[in-house]
Amino acid sequence: MDGKMSWTVADAVDYKGFPADKSKTGGWVPAALILGIEICERLSTMGIAVNLVTYLIGTMHMPSSTSANVVTDFMGTSFLLCLLGGFLADSFLGRFKTIAIFSVVQALGTAALAVATKLPQLRPPPCHANNSSCTPANGFQMGILYMALYLIALGTGGLKSSVSGFGTDQFDEKDDKEKAQMAYFFNRFFFFISLGTLLAVTVLVYIQDEVGRSWAYGICSASMFIAIGILLSGIKKYRYKKSMGSPIVHILQVIAAAIGKRKMDLPYDVSLLYESNPDGTRIQHTDQFQFLDKAAIGVQSDFETKNGRRGSEPNPWRLCSVTRVEEVKMMVRLLPIWATTIIFWTTYAQMITFSVEQASTMDRKVGSFQIPAGSLTVFFVAAILITLAVYDRLIMPVWKKWKGKPGFSNLQRIAIGLALSTIGMAVAALAESRRLSAAKSMTTATKTVPISVFLLIPQFLLVGSGEAFIYTGQLDFFITQSPKGMKTMSTGLFLTTLSLGFFVSSFLVMVVKKVTAGGGNGGQGWLADNINHGRLDCFYGLLAVLGVVNFAVFLVCAVWYKPSGKEGDGKKLNGGGSLEVMEKKANGVEEKC
């Protein structure tokens, strides 16, 4: 019996619902099947995003700023919907079903986009871009386009919330060998994200520009259906983790219980607070956010059922354990760092919108070959891959010898990412100033600004290197500094910084366009419909200034942030006792109140 149990995973089951057998389930083969979905997701989402702005301007005849906002809203919604996907996976569907269902949704969305870009009835009559006589797309045409885009966004949000988690489910953390394999899987996971992005900004963008967008999006849809088939082929090999319930509900329970007891006084001794977790899983009590501690004040009525009878378990909406309260406190402590990382993704949004539009106006020829404007983001992806390689092979060993630590801390990596993105925006402002000077020398018949597109490479490299640091730093920070039972929630919190960064970009574009219009620059404002008549350099400068202010605020928040007691520090916990002891304490507290 003991030998048999050693070959099962305690918290995982197979497709029949029996304890998962290590020899028959999990490991690298099932994990590799899952990675195919991630490659296709990146191929579709990024292949669409990096070149969508040129389609909106050149084919749908939309203004420059409006086109940029369509892209950023699409990307922002994709990441925001990760919260929905995570909630459904944790509460109802489980990770596997969530991935399968939303992968089909994304595949249908890309198929719809292929149709929308193929049929001439779904786009306005062709004409020269930026011509005042061009007819913009009508409401029906834009409606079909939006439907396709937001089907893709829904699919991306749903499957992205669970892919990495389901991949790690295939490894047993209590097995040293499989734990090492899981760490290797995380490294390969980020590599495959970058590989999918690299294919998107090179091969897929080239097909869009030279062969046809409908062909490119059709390839995305077909590849996603193939990836779904590969995913389904491993049903009998996967390990499935049982749902622990939604962490959002747990957070709401603590808040509701604290509000319900807001008029009660905290006991003089925190050991009087309710605790039901075993010693090995408790979290040390902290003095921050003491209002939330009131959720752990026990009274007799907390244990009463609907029929007025006394139950053995309290109503979770009226009484929460100290550990559950501390879990919520841990999440609250993450919020200042969370808020100060949003501006990076606002900067990132410019790399796939205005920077691509800049490239479309510049000389992109290398010999007889013309680089597609969207493919210039290959330098962005290359910067990420090179930075990760240099960090792993050079910086980490040197840092370990010098400081005795295996690389920078998560907060240090975030700081480096913020600094690089801010410098990137300052460099982008200078490059755009030079591009505008060259544009002024153009004749009206000239379409291409007489300046090389390689002028934009430094801004792509700087922001790309910044992403390599901040993405890994954020992911590490939100996973390691969150409670064990809220890992999915913390990952969702991380992804919302990407979402809000895109939405903040849309908001800034709208505000800047409104505030600067009607002033100088012939009434065009900074973000004119034709960027050759605007002052995009001033907009980039504004983002650089905001980056400096945000960086200063981040440093303050990083100094303020103090990690809380980790799970398992049961001996350090001041509060909590057994249920029998708590009932006696609850009666005493009730009499006192």
What's the helix and strand layout?
Blueprint: H1 2-5, E1 8-13, E2 19-21, H2 28-58, H3 64-80, H4 82-93, H5 95-118, H6 139-168, H7 176-210, H8 213-232, E3 240-241, H9 247-260, H10 290-293, H11 322-340, H12 342-351, H13 354-361, E4 362-363, E5 365-366, E6 369-370, H14 378-403, H15 410-440, E7 449-452, H16 457-480, H17 487-516, H18 536-560, H19 579-592
Structural summary, described in words:
Belongs to the major facilitator superfamily. Proton-dependent oligopeptide transporter (POT/PTR) (TC 2.A.17) family. One of its GO terms (cellular component) is membrane. The chain crosses the membrane at residues 74-93, 100-119, 139-159, 189-208, 214-235, 334-351, 371-391, 411-431, 451-471, 492-512, 539-561. The chain is mainly α and 593 residues long. 64% of the residues lie in helices and 4% in strands. The chain has helices at residues 2-5, 28-58, 64-80, 82-93, 95-118, 139-168, 176-210, 213-232, 247-260, 290-293, 322-340, 342-351, 354-361, 378-403, 410-440, 457-480, 487-516, 536-560, 579-592; strands at 8-13, 19-21, 240-241, 362-363, 365-366, 369-370, 449-452. Strand 5 (365-366) and strand 6 (369-370) form a beta hairpin. The two termini are 53 Å apart.
Question: Which features does this protein show?
Answer:
mainly alpha; POT_fam; Growth Hormone, Chain: A; transmembrane; membrane; 3-stranded antiparallel β-sheet; disordered C terminus; 593 residues; disordered N terminus
